[in-house]
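Handout, section 4.2: multi-component inputs.
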Amino acid sequence: KAGVTQTPRYLIKTRGQQVTLSCSPISGHRSVSWYQQTPGQGLQFLFEYFSETQRNKGNFPGRFSGRQFSNSRSEMNVSTLELGDSALYLCASSLAPGTGDGYTFGSGTRLTVV
Amino acid sequence: QKEVEQNSGPLSVPEGAIASLNCTYSDRGSQSFFWYRQYSGKSPELIMSIYSNGDKEDGRFTAQLNKASQYVSLLIRDSQPSDSATYLCAVNENNFNKFYFGSGTKLNVKP
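Output:
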């Protein structure tokens, strides 16, 4: 079966711009989480969506937002980009929250802010 | 702030040896524990999960959990060069779908 699909794979943006990243979870998975991965901070939780509702949010500024659609696809948006937002953004899907299942990660979107 | 601690390594072992990777966590309420493997330039992939105290074996991998000591480990038997990767420990926050990841241990298996 198809895995977690993230688009685009690579992005280069300028400071101050905004960006939208997309994630399609595994078919049947209804929970989508987003993580930021940087060499210095490792994997940090951004937010989690289930049934089009944000259930959890990490310690990121309000410039980071997301949403989930009725087909479980999710998008995250970063506004007013800063150099420090350069990172690998990973989407992870699982069946549902609270099941204790591990994630399946997508290949990620590599964002570079210049 | 909940913390998951791992030795960053690198941990170098010869081919065929046992690699032992360790992880400690701060939240006593944590319920689920996972090990992910991440090859350079790739995304993490789930290799093991463990929920109860004791050992859980899957092929060459054994996960060990000790909730009293807040400690989880991963043993890789008969290590192969293809096992060379960064191993991430992840801890679930009280059954919410929110995980705290350690910074990872880089494993080098030398032929």
